[in-house]
Amino acid sequence: MISHPRFYWGETGNDLTPTLFKLPIPASRHLVPTGYAYVLPDQNGWSRYLHFQAAWVVVLTGLLYIIFGLVTSHFRKNLFPAKADLSWRSFANEVVSHLRLQRPSEAEAWSYNALQRLSYLFVIFVLFPFVIWTGLAMSPAFVSAVPAAVNVLGGQQSARTLHFFVSLALVLFLLVHVGMVWLAGFRGRMRAMITGRAGIPRVAAMVERT
Amino acid sequence: MSELSRRKLIATGITAAAGVAGLGVAARLAEKYGLIPPDHGGIYGLGETLTYASQRLLTRHSLAREFSRSQISKSPFANEVEPPTDEFRRLQAGGFADWRLSVSGMVARPASFSLDQLKGNPSHTQITMLQCEEGWSYIAEWIGVPLSQVLDVVGVLPQARYVVYFSIEPDTWESIDMADALHPQTFLTYGMNGDDLPVGHGGPLRLRLPRQVGYKSVKFITHLTVTDNLKGFGKGLGSSAPEAGYAWYAGI
Fold first, then answer.
1. Phi, psi at residue B193, to the nearest 5°?
2. Is the C-alpha dihedral spanning B207, B208, B212, B218 positive or negative?
3. What is the pTM (predicted TM-score) of this model?
């Protein structure tokens, strides 16, 4: 991205063609017309190695997560929202309580509300698959075997532009997610995420809720 | 901690041991079927090996996308090249009449070809995309002779595993496995968009490899050598790209 902070739509694009948009940053290649008088050092070699190795971590842990999620009914039990929670009114309540930055009660700590469930589902089943797909759609070898992967996106440069926005959405989710964890009590929530235990026993939480 | 029983510990241990053994078997098989890239060492070696092996299995015979004549880019961007060497300037002054491509290594009949000799073969064309790892791209018609035809003429020995190719530019060389070397779209390219290949795009002779990003398509090719082992070339990482920090396999 830093070696070519210009984005296009369609199959091709380069320094001699019009852009869809440009990022207002300097580049690591001096032929790119950025408007800056200086050129950043080239970091593409190791960062490409790191990027593609990290992609394998995402794909392989993602596959394990999906398999376990299906086998243990994690998605059905914990992520698909209950019908009752999908009304506009309860939705509005959740949005308001989020905006007021209210800390979740002890009882809520054991479960996700509909807003959280829908965000997680969107990240797991839309953003992650799409970021992997748009990434593969840029690979000249992969699309030689599966040309439809890039053709349906409108071209290789379209895939690059979409990949940029989807990864931006994932970074945004990460920042907001960590921010919310912070507000909800960082130590307690981190303990819950890592050990799978909330601060209070599940039974007590259930009783409190009813 | 009480839930982490001895049984769980034993099960975890057995799973881990099976995993390690499985990896060992996988590594043997991968080596046997040529699925391990020369730059497999170091902290990024595992990801690199997974990428090369899976793409090699998926794409051994697949063809890069070809485009229609109307999709040829009106502004193909010629990336920067090092200032030409004196040798290059001398050959350019002579209209590249003395440009030679020599072929050596594991071949039955080592040979050297002039551009006219290469152009004497029936010419082939492909309209494919050149995409740079930096992110930019263009589509052009490339005219040349498939590398496989030249390899047929010199007679590649059966134990050959890689073709190493060298630019007239110092320290610029790459290599490809036989799947890529014999691939019908791997061209020794001498023409572009109906004309001679411009110097900016690698003229007079460029190896085009449309299933990998641009830096594998080395400009100003003067020499090919066929080998069964890349260890003896440079630092043994397969090409000058890993020596500069870039991956040897560039299909992604």
1. 50, 45
2. positive
3. 0.89
User: Is residue B234 assigned to a domain?
Assistant: yes
Helix, strand, coil proportions of chain A in percent (round to 5)? 65, 0, 35
- Whole-number Å distance between alpha carbons of A30 and B170: 22
What residues in A contact B210, CB-CB < 8 Å?
A: 140
Residue-wise pLDDT for B75-102, tens only, equals 999 998 888 999 999 999 999 999 999 9
AA identity, residue A176: V
Say which residue the tokens 């793409």 belong to.
Answer: B55
Among B47, B75, B251, the residue with its CB nearest the CB of A56 is: B47
Nearest CA in chain A to B49: A53
Structural domain total, chain B: 1
CATH number at residue B89: 3.90.420.10
Measuring CA to CA, which residue among B240, B209, B79, B238 is closest to residue A141?
Answer: B209
Beta-carbon neighbour count of residue A86 at 10 Å? 12
Is B23 inside a domain boundary? no
3-state secondary structure of A15: coil
Q: What is the largest CA-CA distance in chain A?
A: 67
Whether residue A12 and residue B137 make contact (CB cut-off 8 A), yes or no, is yes
pLDDT in tens, B193-252: 999 999 999 999 999 999 999 999 999 999 999 999 999 999 999 999 999 999 999 999
